[in-house]
Structures are given as structure tokens and as C-alpha cells.
């Protein structure tokens, strides 16, 4: 293939495909722009869960059994924080903590999130550029019967229990694209945009809410390929199914495609959802049916190849 | 006994006697005011080594084998910080980290160091009041052939190798006593001030440099008892012997007593230095000769009783 690939990623599922793309592409051909709407300030630390998921997956440090965080993790600081009377609902592992500490002090010292992310991913030997969607703080908030909740309060503290009525991205409009995302979108050699399998409402919409992203994607001259986050009509993980219902959407690939109307060329759906293909094609979306569950490196790389091939680059 | 005891403490040695006093006195009868000249900002954390030494000793969490920090410690965050290219010369244990995180975010949120210290010591079930010498930042700096070094750079990073020419306490004059120290000094029922065995130049002088402390001690109407940090003419730990030479002082109890001239009533010296007693008495200092090496709880409590007895309170 030739040309540059821009991957857009949310959390754990997106990070797996990002790692697959990193495994099959030369590092200079890949930019991974990551959702920062999940970021939050906690115990004085700036925590960027999706950037960390991508970073750990690309560095081979992700815990594949627990499904999030760093492999071989321990929780000794957390245990003492509890003993000191501090909040302990958000689990901060001892190995993971180094990332939060390094990022937080450098942000406070004046580095941008892009600069810090470049520094830390390079320190871990990651080749492709990993960039935040924006250097400005964007904070996803979910309206529930209890009022507006910050994302991590909704997602981790409340375990997505309250019914969601609406979602907003505090800081948008007004959040500029990060230099790395703007640069990737403007590259003359941009060959495709690949949307990794991530929650459309919680992980992708914040990226689309960043100033100029939706317009740039709508005006693009290259294929825009998404991998559906649904498998057998359900999300593998996280609150997507519940959210789709609460927000009055159908729990289907048609609803996913409709959500990206005007942007998407091609949707990769899981083989368990092969029956959805015809309806999607009737909506003007081209479809690839493929295994999308990524158990390990082999499936990640295979799905990356399927996505590149859908862009006629594989 | 009756009345309130004010103990002044530096690091590990001081913390041991503070723990001894805490074991033999009712909690409401003891205030421990701690040196904060060693405090520093590192990786975005406010680290207060002497407050932590006292806190861990009083909570029974101190590591008695390593001699500093928390018992049953691990260094998993530290190891990852190194992998991320961050400074790793100052060891931050995983259990210890909780203290730095809790303190740092609460200071940043606007609590004073006194408030944070009260909160964290109470969370650990510590009865006596542990207070910083001041809520204003005071930073000990050491002049060496390489110029002025921040204390932890001199002490930990450079392992006290450069010869010291002078010591200063950045932030003084101008640093007010903490409310807890001011209150203890002003108490009508103050019965004695006990100076724990700590380095005069590095641990005690910063306390004496806080606005009003030296004057209040000089004007006191109660006994001021010090436990010498020397054992057999040497400091048990730390750079005191080296510093005494570099700063042109004798390595002796007479030099310690001379350093506190006009303040001290009574010096407790180790039985290995019994020969110093006569000279000290000639200087007008009353002397108790006693075992001052605190291997464990028994020796800590015994030395606490000796100090209280020297104040005619035991």
C-alpha cells in the first residue's frame, strides 16, 4: 500500500484495532487520533483512559484478561488511599500510576497533551503517532435522572446504572483539533480514515464534536471505513446496547450507519451480523462481513488487513 | 505529669522519639511540630519527608529495617516511571505514594499543610497533633562547590557528596508559624519543649528560622530539653558528622550545645558520650546521660520517659 492512514479510536476495542494497524503498517504511515472526552481530573491527576488504552495496547502492556489497564498490575497505592480516607471508586494501578503522574506533572509544567503523549509513547517504543483529538479539555457528560454526570462518574462510579437522556461534550464547540490530527487530515498522501470499533455516542461523537473534524471528514476525498462495535447485535463490552435503547435508537448496524450518515463509505460488520448487510447496502453503505472479535494479535492484525482492504489499500 | 508537651522533630531519629512520647503521653498532652525544610516538589507531588517519617512512626507503618518509608513497601510505580523516562533518583514507594497523592491534591485544592496533615494523621488513627512548623513553604538549600542545591538534590540525588559551605532556608524570614505550633507555644499549660534527636543544621535550624520560633523559645518559662543526635561522637545516620566538619564546627556534644546557646536548658547525651557531661555542665547546660539509641518501641518509650523526667515531669 501507499499513503497515510488516520485511525480514530476510543477505548479498549478501538485500541485493539489500532494495535492491529500498528502491527501491519510501517509506523510512519499511521496516525492514531484518540478520544479524550473520557479524560478527567482525579486526586490531582489528569487521567486519559482512551489514550492509555491505545498506548498500552501498542506497547504490548495491556492486560488482556482484565480487559483494561496494565498487565501484571497491583493496587497498593489504591489500598493506602482508601486507608487515608480518599476516594477509591476509580481503580488506579501501581504500574498505571506512573503514566498518570508523568502526564499530570508535565501538563502542569506547560506541555500540551499532544507533547506529553508523544513523549510517553516514544519512551515506550511506540512507532506510529498517537495523538489526542484535541489539546483543549473536552469532557463528556451524561444527563441522567440525577442530572448531568461527568463521564467517569456515570461510567465507573455509577457503573452506567442511571438511564441516559442526553450526552454532551463540555468544551465543544471551541476545542481545536490537535496539531497531529489536523496534520493527518490535511496530508496530501492521506489514503483512508479508519474508525475503530468504539461506542459511537461515548467514544466517537466527542471526536466528531472537535472543531472542524466533522467538516473535514465530510469533505474528505479518501475512503472512510468503520468497524462496527456490534457483534451479534450487541456491544461486546460497555453500555452501548443500553444507551442505544435509552437514546431511542435501534440496537442495530443500521442505527450505527445512520448515526454516521453523510460521513461513512464502508462498514465492516461481524459475521454474526451478516444478515444486516443487505439493509446497509440499501442505505448506500458498502459492507464487508468479517470476524471482528479480536481475541489476540492474530485477529487484530487480520481485522486491520480487512479494513485496509476495504479501503482498497490491502 | 500534667501539662502539654511540645516536641520538635526532624526526620527518622526525631520521629522515633516522637513515637515514644506518643506512647507514654495522653494524646491531648502532645503536639509534635515537624520540620518542613526538606519538603520538595517532585513529579507534581508535594513531598514532606519529615512529616511522613513522624506520621509513619506514630501509625506503626514505618519500615524499621530500611530505616525510612513505609513497611512492606514496593516500587512498581517507580519502575514504570523510569521506563517512561522520568526522574527516578527519589524513591517513591507504592504505599507511600498514597500519602503524596492525597496531600498534593488537597494542597492544590486549597487546604493548608496543617489541615492536610491533621486530616491524614487522623485517618491513620494518630492521637497527638502532628503539625508542620509552618504552612508557608520553607525550603532548605545547601551551598556547595556546585552552587546552591535544593535539599533533596543535595541529600538524596547527590548523597551529600559535595562539601557544604553554607545552609539557608528559602522562604525565611517571612514564614509564619503554623497555627498548631503557635498555639502549643502559647498554651498556658505548656510544660516542656522537647527537641527530638535531629540534625541541628538540617532539621532543627529550619524550625528555628520560622518567624517567632526562636524568640518564643528564648522567652519560654518551661524547660527546653534536647536529645543529642550524636552517639559515640557520631551521628547514627545522615551527614551530621561530615557537615559539622565542613561548617567548621567540632564533632561533639559541646558543639551541639553551643549551637543552641541561649535556648537550651538540658541535653540528654548517649551513655557512650558520658565523658562530655562535665564540659557541658561547665557551659551551664544540665545533662542526663542515658541510652539514646532507639532500636524499637521499648527504647523509644524509655528515652521519652528520660526526657520527661529531665523536665521534672516524669
UniProtKB/TrEMBL annotation, chains A, B:
SUPFAM superfamilies: CofD-like. One of its GO terms (molecular function) is LPPG:FO 2-phospho-L-lactate transferase activity. InterPro entries: CofD, CofD-like_dom_sf, FbiA/CofD. CDD domains: CofD_like. Its EC number is 2.7.8.28. Keywords: Magnesium, Transferase. It holds the Pfam family CofD. This is 2-phospho-L-lactate transferase.
Amino acid at each position: 500500500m501507499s499513503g497515510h492512514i488516520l485511525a480514530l479510536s476510543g477505548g479498549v476495542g478501538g485500541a485493539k484495532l489500532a494495535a492491529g494497524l500498528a502491527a501491519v503498517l510501517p509506523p510512519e504511515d499511521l496516525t492514531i487520533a484518540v478520544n479524550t472526552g473520557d479524560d478527567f481530573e482525579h486526586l490531582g491527576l489528569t487521567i486519559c483512559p482512551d489514550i492509555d488504552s491505545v498506548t498500552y495496547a501498542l506497547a504490548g502492556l495491556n492486560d488482556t484478561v482484565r480487559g483494561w489497564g496494565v498487565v501484571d498490575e497491583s493496587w497498593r497505592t489504591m489500598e493506602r488511599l482508601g486507608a487515608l480516607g480518599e476516594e477509591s471508586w476509580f481503580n488506579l494501578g501501581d504500574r498505571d500510576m506512573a503514566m498518570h503522574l508523568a502526564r499530570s506533572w508535565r501538563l502542569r509544567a506547560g506541555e500540551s497533551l499532544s507533547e506529553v503523549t508523544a513523549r510517553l509513547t516514544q519512551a515506550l517504543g511506540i512507532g506510529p503517532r498517537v495523538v489526542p483529538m484535541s489539546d483543549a479539555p473536552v469532557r463528556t457528560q451524561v444527563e441522567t435522572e440525577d442530572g448531568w454526570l461527568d463521564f467517569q462518574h456515570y461510567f465507573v462510579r455509577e457503573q452506567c446504572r442511571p438511564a441516559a437522556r442526553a450526552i454532551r461534550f463540555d468544551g465543544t464547540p471551541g476545542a481545536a483539533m490537535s496539531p497531529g490530527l489536523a496534520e493527518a487530515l490535511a496530508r496530501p498522501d492521506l489514503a483512508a480514515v479508519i474508525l475503530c470499533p468504539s461506542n459511537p455516542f461515548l467514544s466517537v461523537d466527542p471526536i466528531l464534536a472537535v472543531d472542524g473534524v466533522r467538516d473535514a471528514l465530510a469533505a474528505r476525498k479518501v475512503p472512510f471505513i468503520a468497524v462496527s462495535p456490534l457483534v451479534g447485535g450487541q456491544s461486546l463490552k460497555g453500555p452501548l446496547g443500553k444507551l442505544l435503547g435509552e437514546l431511542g435508537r435501534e440496537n442495530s448496524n443500521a442505527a450505527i450507519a445512520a448515526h454516521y450518515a453523510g460521513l461513512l463509505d464502508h462498514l465492516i460488520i461481524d459475521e454474526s451480523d451478516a444478515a444486516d448487510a443487505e439493509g446497509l447496502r440499501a442505505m448506500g453503505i458498502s459492507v464487508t462481513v468479517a470476524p471482528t472479535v479480536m481475541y489476540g494479535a492474530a485477529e487484530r492484525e487480520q481485522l486491520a488487513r480487512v479494513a485496509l482492504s476495504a479501503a482498497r489499500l490491502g
